[in-house]
UniProtKB/TrEMBL annotation:
Pathway: Purine metabolism; IMP biosynthesis via salvage pathway; IMP from hypoxanthine: step 1/1; Purine metabolism; GMP biosynthesis via salvage pathway; GMP from guanine: step 1/1. Keywords: Cytoplasm, Glycosyltransferase, Magnesium, Metal-binding, Nucleotide-binding, Purine salvage, Transferase. The gene is hpt. InterPro entries: HGPRT (IPR050408), Hxn_phspho_trans (IPR005904), PRTase-like (IPR029057), PRTase_dom (IPR000836). Belongs to the purine/pyrimidine phosphoribosyltransferase family. It holds the Pfam family Pribosyltran. This is Hypoxanthine phosphoribosyltransferase. Coiled coil: none annotated. It is an enzyme of class 2 (transferase).
Amino acid sequence: AADISADLEHVLRTADQIDARVAELAALIDADYAGRRPVLVGVLNGAMIVMSDLCRAMHCHVEVDWMAVSSYGSGTRSSGVVRILKDLTVDVAGRDVLIVEDIIDTGLTLSYLVHNIATRGAASVRVATMFRKPEALNAPVEADYVGFDLPDEFVVGYGLDYAGRYRNLRDLATLAPHVYR
Ligand code: PRP
Ligand code: MN
Ligand code: MG
């Protein structure tokens, strides 16, 4: 089988650009949480890459936990229905929570999560996302830390998948049409 790079159309953000932006976000987050110990909540599976890079670029004390929340289906669009596949292990009551996402598209996943975690009595709930699609600007919740705003194209890599694949690409790229036609 060919290398996965044969399935790409063009690279929107290189691994080097992403690394540099992660370092900038980490510095902002470190400053904002100085003297506190936030719980970083990664949203599986997409956030696995940004979580590992972001938490290691930070210098304050953190705890790391995960939720798996998925919209139904494995296609290219969110379906509008959210369900919890794996819940938190940490009790976040009274804690400062930073939700870590790879991308916000419709904002549906994030709206659900922010409300859900706030309901558990978290002291604060903020959001960091590596990427943001244009539609996210119409969502009822806003991200506090955003890596890059993207055009409205279907992208993969840096944790983002198409039908479960391509998460392990270091760059963020569009898929060649032959892959999904
Ligand atoms: C993707 C992405 C975000 C969410 C964003 O996750 O990782 O979590 O969709 O879309 P929204 O803003 O329209 O809700 P997905 O449900 O594909 O699961 P995955 O992280 O396992 O790929
Ligand atoms: Mn996700
Ligand atoms: Mg996905």
